[in-house]
Amino acid sequence: MSRRYALRDDQWDKIKNWLPSREGTVGVTAKNNRLFVEAVLYRYRVGIPWRDLPERFGHFRDVHKRHTRWSQTGVWEKVFQHLAHDSDNEYQMIDATIVRAHQHSSGVKGSSKKKSPKGYRFAYVSAKVLAG
Fold this sequence. Notes:
43% helix; extended; mainly alpha
């Protein structure tokens, strides 16, 4: 299995004690919480529908059902709060879809640069900001 979308051991150690269905807790012990969390992360990182989830993660309906239960009971919220409180700012990202710039910020008045075609100004400016 590709480790590209998998959690590293140090990342898993940060969240494993905040998850239900682990050994030593009340209720049924889950088969593999780590595989389930990696399935959810894979699904959101790749941007695929649940039904396109690779078979190595199990049947997509089971993964979706468990994800929905965890969402409704606040498990994900607890994990996110824990990670936000204990953040190390390892990753900081800017998404080009939310970067905004004033319409006149793309160049100096009288500059010899070609202006972007009308309707593409935000994409042009965003790409320029991200590249620089």
